[in-house]
Amino acid sequence: MDWRNLIRDKLVSADEAVKVVKSGDRVVVPVTGEPLAVGMALCARRDELRDVQLFTTGANFEFPWFSAEWEDAFQISLDAWIGPFARPAAHERRADFSPRLWSFFHKAEDEQRPRIRGTDVLLIVLSPPNRHGFCSFGRAVWHKKDLARRAKIVVAEIDEDYMWTYGENFIHISEVDLFVEAPPRERRERPSIFLERPPETEAIAGFVSELVRDGDTIQIGQGSVSAGIVRCGAFDGKNDLGWHSETTPAGVVGLVKKGIFTSRYKTHHKGKMVASAFRGEDPEEAAYVDSNPMWELYGLTYVN
After folding, report:
1. Per-domain residue ranges of the chain
2. Which ranges of the chain would DSSP assign to H, the alpha helix?
């Protein structure tokens, strides 16, 4: 069955989808997987919109809304980490930045505290729906599922290359208001990472290795140094380590194949590799995780 038939009544063009955004709306583009076709269609409405509050994290694409001359249309707010494309706006104080504790991301909104505003429009990327009507968030759940449950309007751009995992890495088509099928030219290839081994990271990996015991459960957060200790040997030679981690950097899959990570002695999700995100730049690692029941992705409010 063609997945398009499942969402026939909700499948629109990118230009049509972004008509739901009004001046003054709070629009959220969550971390990883920015919807390029939808994002550029929203940018095309620059002259029609004023004071759209656009919240984004770790931007991986240089949308025009980061430019100084776009301030009348889009007011940028950044949280958690900024990313290279939004950094000039932050340095020039054209964008707000708020440090964020992931596990309490929605606490103020859920408690209905004064002056806390929810999401008017959420822009995300999803896989095509399966025969049961569920879509995958791909290689990273982060806080997307929580945002979708709270947003007034959810607009999803379909990426046919998105992976599937077990856990709670899915959303039903009934929870999405509009779908956009991006043309192939709008999809980005994820580049392979350059596996450097800086001497300082190797030194840190050595110290970490001294602390880790067989059977320990490991958590690694976002960051080049924390991710780098994996490929610098921090866990080499260990046995039956567990994995319950915010992110999953390059090299972890190889350690699973070697039997270093088995999650055998975890007290929760025994035998499972649990995370909120999988980096996924390496095609072979991504193929190994895709639809593998050993890997489970959950939202940040649970994992963290």
Report:
1. 6-186, 199-303
2. 14-17, 36-43, 87-91, 107-110, 144-150, 199-211, 224-231, 252-257, 283-289, 300-303
CA-based nearest residue to 145, from 108, 115, 175, 187: 175
Report pLDDT digits (tens) over 166-200. Answer: 999 999 999 999 999 988 754 454 444 446 788 99
Q: What is the pLDDT of residues 152-161, one digit of tens each?
A: 999 999 999 9
**CATH class for domain 6-186?**
alpha beta
Residues 180/35, Cβ–Cβ less than 8 Å: yes
Q: Tell how strand 52-56 and strand 26-29 pair up.
A: parallel
pTM of the model: 0.93
Q: Measuring CA to CA, which residue among 190, 168, 166, 165 is closest to residue 250?
A: 190
Q: Is 277 helix (H, G, I), strand (E, B) or coil?
A: strand
- 8 A C-beta contact, residue 120 and residue 150: no
Would you state the CATH architecture of domain 199-303? 2-Layer Sandwich (3.30)
